[in-house]
Design a protein that fits this description.
Layout lengths: L13 H20 L3 E2 L3 E5 L5 E5 L8 E6 L25 H15 L6 H4 L15 H6 L4 H9 L3 H17 L13 H14 L1 E4 L3 E3 L8 E2 L5 E4 L39 E6 L10 E2 L7 H7 L11 E3 L2 H14 L9 H23 L25 E3 L6 H42 L4 H10 L30 H19 L8 H20 L2 H23 L8 H12 L21 H30 L3
Parallel strand pairs: 7-10
Antiparallel strand pairs: 1-4, 2-3, 4-9, 5-6, 8-9, 11-12
Helix pairs in contact: 2-7, 5-8, 9-10, 9-11, 9-15, 10-11, 10-13, 11-12, 11-15, 13-14, 13-15, 15-17, 16-17
């Protein structure tokens, strides 16, 4: 069910291509024998990478049922051969994916005796390279990335799967004479492959079957938006799977409500359907979707592939990360003698945490870019996830991240200006009394008294005399007022105007109408630049520094931070270009799946995928940094 074209696919021998076609024909024959319907306008095809896909042979209108799979054919913890051999459900307390993986592994071990042997034989024979099961060398390449955060969120790993096999699976089957443990071929490798199939192929079928493998449905590759969707009756009886009334309902039902879980009362077989959502043209591949808005971090973690130019990719930040960067930039802007504004920023941290929703809502209506033009640096507000802090796939800041940085920039610049003004005032008073002190009070005692009085409101440990002409530390000032929505809107326009000015607004070969729009917009930007105050320009500089610091810190946590995206992709290509041994010319599997060194090849495949993911994230960081060179 993974489906992205490889970056550099290696040609396979013609015999291997014929064997791939045979595998596809084998699957088609198996589906037909089990009463699976596939619209004759669709065709199962084999790709050069060994995967199966669905192509359209003729146009298909929307709302057409293009596939029907009998519910009795799904492979779940209810329908597998193991289900009837276990005493109850000893795996019920574990996740649906782990539970199903055990049942799938058992079917794999059964081989020809399995009801699903014809289907499983066409599935990848080595584990699908889902990042959840990567080895340490591949995981090292995604340290500090969004993918690492996704893996931590899911909570599964190769090590945890091994512990599950040792501590749960083997003890359960050690008491079962018919369990997989009794077979010498059952091993962790079977569970590893089964879990990768479950992660990359399983569907949530119903409240009865739960997670299950669905033959044919998993042949449709992923796209967003898709051509078709998977349709099932989800809310069935969790005890018997009936859609109609059954004895397990709370209310009394009439006699005769004892149809099988796979059928209706009238004897018709229940099916799972693939239904077209939009018109399908002849010759194009037909796609399903594994979920709306899936970023490459999720696709790599659970499905083992990446989409080039995925518009849903983001680089997210925790609230504390952003506040720490704002504090760091504020300290960088102070003179060495000034006390860092950490205490003020701790208060700022708490205040923004409670005010960010209000700030974002207040600025949304007043900070829109000029008509017909998207802001080059800040993404438009979204109806959902409005408070998420991230860079989007177009290298723009999310509205919430921008609001947080803008509020912090204006607050920090004003605080610094106020603090410097107060310190300068103290030194002005110091200078005005220097002559009198020299004449009337040795050692400058009059000045000492004034400075001590000014520092009386500081922390006791800071309230000490500073040497002449050295700025006193720890001046305690009243907090600056928070920026208003109008001020945030002006800063919103100012950073766009400075970006526009930095780019030079080069727009060759535009129509007269487009030139008119550009000239009008450019005029607006020039006006913004002219009327902006020095404080607003300093706030724009501060915001740019904060964005660059976010990028620098994220990159510093990653592997080989000095490598650019091109070098990472070159390394990924090198990992994929493992020579194919001549002895395996008759092996029907693709290069990373050769039997003679499958372990090493799988590791190279994982590392290549990790490097490609890191290259995409590295490129996005480079684009964001370049965008904010104001």
């Amino acid at each position: 069910m993974r489906k992205a074209q490889p970056r550099a696919a290696q040609p396979l021998p013609s015999l291997s291509l014929r064997l791939l076609s045979f595998s596809r024909m084998q699957l088609a024959d198996w589906l037909e024998r089990h009463r699976v319907f596939l619209d004759p306008r669709l065709s199962l095809v084999s790709r050069a990478d060994g995967s199966t896909a669905v192509d359209a042979l003729a146009p298909i209108p929307p709302h057409s049922t293009v596939g029907r799979i009998p519910v009795s054919l799904v492979l779940s913890h209810r329908s597998s051969a193991l289900a009837s051999r276990l005493n109850g459900d000893p795996l019920a307390s574990h996740t649906p994916a782990l539970r199903l993986a055990v049942h799938v592994a058992h079917e794999v071990v059964l081989g020809p005796e399995s009801r699903w042997q014809g289907y499983l034989a066409t599935c990848p024979e080595v584990p699908v390279p889902v990042a959840l099961l990567w080895r340490d060398d591949a995981l090292d390449w995604v340290m500090g990335t969004e993918l690492q955060r996704e893996l931590s969120r899911i909570g599964m790993s190769r090590t945890r799967l091994q512990a599950f096999y040792d501590d749960v699976v083997l003890p359960i089957f050690s008491t079962s004479q018919s369990g997989p443990e009794s077979s010498p071929t059952f091993s962790f490798a079977h569970l590893l492959r089964a879990y990768s199939l479950v992660s990359s192929r399983a569907f949530q079928v119903s409240s009865y079957h739960s997670l299950a493998l669905v033959p044919l449905a998993d042949a449709f590759n992923h796209s967003d938006p898709p051509h078709v969707h998977f349709a099932s009756d989800t809310w069935v009886c969790p005890e018997c799977g009936r859609l109609e009334a059954c004895p397990h309902d709370e209310e009394t039902v009439t006699a005769g409500a004892g149809a099988l879980a796979d059928g209706h009362e009238d004897g018709a077989e229940e099916t799972l359907d693939m239904v077209s959502e939009r018109a399908i043209e002849a010759g194009e591949e037909v796609y399903n979707t594994y979920g709306a808005g899936l970023a490459n971090a999720k696709l790599a973690a659970s499905y083992g592939f990446l989409l080039e130019g995925n518009e849903h990719d983001v680089l997210s930040f925790h609230h504390d990360e952003v506040i720490d960067v704002l504090s760091f930039c504020a300290i960088q802007g102070t003179a060495p003698e000034l006390d860092p504004m950490l205490q003020q920023h701790r208060a700022f941290r708490d205040a923004v945490a409670t005010q960010i929703d209000a700030v974002l809502a207040a600025s949304a209506s007043t900070s829109a870019p000029p008509s017909d033009h998207e802001h080059p640096l800040i993404a438009p507000p979204l109806s959902a996830g409005g408070n998420s802090l991230y860079f989007d796939a177009d290298a723009r800041l999310s509205p919430a991240l921008w609001a947080l940085i803008a509020v912090g920039a204006l607050h920090a610049v004003r605080t610094l200006a106020d603090e410097r003004a107060a310190v300068d005032d103290i030194h002005d008073r110091h200078d005005s009394l220097t002559v009198a002190d020299d004449q009337n009070a040795p050692d400058g005692s009059a000045c000492d008294r004034i400075v001590r009085a000014d520092l009386a409101h500081s922390t006791p440990s800071e309230a000490r005399l500073s040497p002449p002409r050295k700025r006193p530390r720890g001046v305690n000032l009243p907090p600056s007022t928070w920026p208003t929505a109008d001020e945030l809107a002006r800063l919103f326009d100012l950073v766009a105007a400075r970006r526009d000015h930095a780019d030079g607004q080069a727009a060759p070969e535009l129509s007269d109408e487009e030139n008119s729009v550009v000239q009008s917009t450019t005029s607006d930007w020039h006006t913004v630049l002219q009327v902006a105050s020095p404080v607003e320009h300093r706030a724009a500089d501060f915001a740019a520094r904060a964005v660059h610091e976010l990028c620098r810190r994220r990159r510093a946590t990653q592997e080989e931070p000095e490598w650019d995206a091109v070098r990472l992709l070159d390394e990924a290509d090198r990992r994929r270009r493992t020579p194919m041994p001549d002895s395996s010319a008759t092996d029907p599997r693709s290069e990373p799946q050769r039997e003679d060194d499958a372990e090493g090849r799988s590791s190279d495949t994982e590392c290549a995928l990790a490097l490609e993911y890191l290259a995409g994230e590295r490129l996005l960081l480079e684009r964001v940094s370049s965008q904010w060179d104001l």
